């Protein structure tokens, strides 16, 4: 097969490209230029798409003897990922830009361009596994290395996209990948991993958002409406947050308080006690299925963070929505996060959480 190997300049994508070549595929390396003003050098483990990264990817491609190109997708990345990220926070939601990047860039823009140029598939260095069923269709599964598993951020892929995707690292642990890279003589064998969020190099999301949205002073209120503090922008807060609240009035019961709601319409942040954070009922929009949509109510595992716990649940599809009932409560679930559903190690699909609540009727019934 003719395969585009997405090469970020890191160790994972380098080994992924090498493995695709070893498997007998006709491989071309492609580095995605996602920044409109790329830095020359990487200043930390955060960030991506520096000129240094592109150079590292090119050196690996040269060692493998494969063609190498840089595809400029900075404008598409800005519109579909960065601006979406800002808009979601402005609306009081907490997005996951990695899922959006996989959906809109790596397995839409990149894959579409590859297919238009006559390639058959795209390979990346994600830690996940694609399993082919007897009928030739494919399933997305968790990686062998649980600590590095990235199936959560790939939960937006459709069955058609899976049919044209390769994840060569899914059966290997990260230490083994670094060892293999060293044996192949790759300079990037010891290169530090990148950390989210890639376009916020210093990791200070609040400062980054403030630079783009400006200060928007408002009230922090208790659940009874009492003003207990001030903020400089409700967009900088997320459900479940405890640090950085700087409340002027301590709680009467002395218990710590958390963000329980962000109200962008009134520019208000609502805080309350930890017991208000527990939810067991989720509604997700923009449902995407890695195969057929669930038929009726099905038992699944639900995960709401990239490295969060998987909770037993039931779920059912309703058009573009999915409804999820968790068997136990989760804390700090915010609108805008993604819920990814599993059947064992298999990814069933995903949705963007639009509402999270405590199903008090179900709770009361279960306790009777």
From TrEMBL:
GO MF terms held by the record: ATP binding; methyltransferase activity; tRNA binding; tRNA-uridine 2-sulfurtransferase activity
GO cellular component, one term: cytoplasm
Name of the protein this chain belongs to: tRNA-specific 2-thiouridylase MnmA
Intrachain disulfide bonds: 101-198
Family recorded in the similarity comment: Belongs to the MnmA/TRMU family.
Reactions catalysed, as given in the entry: S-sulfanyl-L-cysteinyl-[protein] + uridine(34) in tRNA + AH2 + ATP = 2-thiouridine(34) in tRNA + L-cysteinyl-[protein] + A + AMP + diphosphate + H(+)
Gene3D superfamilies in the cross-refs: Adenine nucleotide alpha hydrolases-like domains, HUPs, Translation factors
Organism this protein belongs to: Oryzihumus leptocrescens
Subcellular location: Cytoplasm
Entries under CDD domains matching the protein: MnmA_TRMU-like
Site (Interaction with tRNA): 126, 337
Active site, UniProt feature: 101, 198
InterPro entries: MnmA-like (IPR004506), MnmA-like_C (IPR046885), MnmA-like_central (IPR046884), MnmA-like_central_sf (IPR023382), Rossmann-like_a/b/a_fold (IPR014729)
tRNA-specific 2-thiouridylase MnmA-like C-terminal domain mapped to chain residues: 280-353
Region spans: Interaction with tRNA: 148-150
Lineage: Bacteria, Bacillati, Actinomycetota, Actinomycetes, Micrococcales
Gene of this entry: mnmA
A GO BP annotation: tRNA wobble position uridine thiolation
Highest taxon listed in the record's lineage: Bacteria
Annotated binding of ATP, by residue: 6-13, 32, 125
EC class (word): transferase
